[in-house]
Amino acid sequence: MGFLGPNGAGKSTTMRILSGILPASSGSAWVGGISVAQDPHEVKRKIGYMPENNPLPDDMRVVEYLRFRARLKEVPGRKLRETVQEAMEICDLARTARRKIIGTLSKGFRQRVGIADALLGEPEVIIMDEPTIGLDPHQIQGIRKLIDNLRGKLTVVLSSHILPEIERSCDRVIVINRGRIVAAGTSQELRDEFIPGNRFLLEVVGEAGMVELALNQSGIDAAIIDEGEVTNRRKKLILRVESAGVNGSDLIRILSQRKEFSLMSLAPAEPTLEEIFLAATKRSWEETIDEKPQDHQSDLETTTETIL
Amino acid sequence: MRHFVTLLKHELRMLFISPSTYVAGVLFLCLMGFLYWAILRGTVNAPSETLPSVQFFSIFWIPVFFVVPLLTMRSIADERSTGTLDTLMTTPVSRGAVVLSKFAGAYIFYLFLWALTLGFPYITQKLYPHAAETGALLNVASITGSFVFLAISGVLFISIGILASSFTRSQLVAGMLCFTTLFVVIVGGQQLGNLAENGGQFAGWMDATVNYLQIFQHLDDFSRGIIDTRPFFYYISTGMLLLGISTLVIEAKA
Lengths: 308, 254
What we know:
By secondary structure, chain A is α/β, with parallel strands linked by helices.
């Protein structure tokens, strides 16, 4: 599950409340059916938490640190070695970084240590606050693969600023702003809600303005929302089609009949999560200006419930 | 309890591998060795009524002022500023166990440093066997008494340091807070006592209270081999109270 929001939206706060570090000022948080406020210890047994910036003690060795953490997470003594070894193997630490001192590790490896730590003790939910912040693209890919490997085994909650990241690794996305949920669902559901209608990217040579007219004359409700010039006469258009049931082949058929322009290419344009994010947060800002701010926590409550 | 043992082992291991531990240890032993030598010289030049060991332990406040803040200022403040306190809090460990393990780690090291000073009279005895014939160097009663005093007063001093460290994320602030509080507790009690002796205008119950807080008076009794239960109560109850407050501070200032 992915957690999105602008800076200061309350992502980290929500994650801290869920992991029991911070008491909620109002509302209630539940993890796996257990109230965080009523039974924090039981909740802590069920979660693995990796905070923002991933703090680690610099002067310990990786394996020592993980054993220490495993003991704190009540892994029984017999299974200790095995559990730590397993976590290190999942995170690809077992061979290269096993005996290294944490302070000397690169940022990517530190992040892996943090994830390995979160995996210890068989948690049901893993909460990661910005796991890929400050990493280079190779390392980001590595971490992403790691998260993909965990899919199906346990619930992973992660927050990030990098939207394609969330889109790739998460089944469900929650967008929050100022402590309130502004959008929740799969990325497809969010697309339908915030950026309705089909979008097509097309390139035409000739009079681009006629495209809209041509479609409207054929009874299709369409509008050009963006126009760019490729070369002198060749133009790139983004077209929004409001009418339901219109697909690419209909458009090709209608547009190729016209003489004013010739259609060079046509492709469906899926709105990116970025656009959804901007649309959702913009809408929420407009709403908060209209109405008075309400109880923020009540929305966070739903967040925590929907997570599970 | 299980967590406490894990955390304490971790604390001791971190102390063991950290260079600052050794620096503090060497500085402490150099200073105390020098002071012991000065005391011995003093007794050689002008024979004195008090035993060298009693004189030695009566200057316990000098190392306390710098060793206790150095030992404790790192404990919670450092974990808070690096953020490892947060990761610790997401494991099923109680706040009390965290505070207690920090306390126990620093306390064990503090006692260990003091135990090393036992080497001084021992070395003197080996080098100058005739000096030991009077039995003045290793006087069992006074050394035992002084060590009991150091052990129980250490509970209060170290817990003052832990509390100071739990308030802030800056080690410097924690160290200064600890130093000032120790100063007020050790010297302030003494000054109150002096005031009472000079003016004598305290009411009866207040006189008793002031006497109760006289740390040097406690040491006097203990180093003569008199072990009183009232100081026990004072140091240990206050120490536990401060550790309890530290737990609450950690809980509130997540």
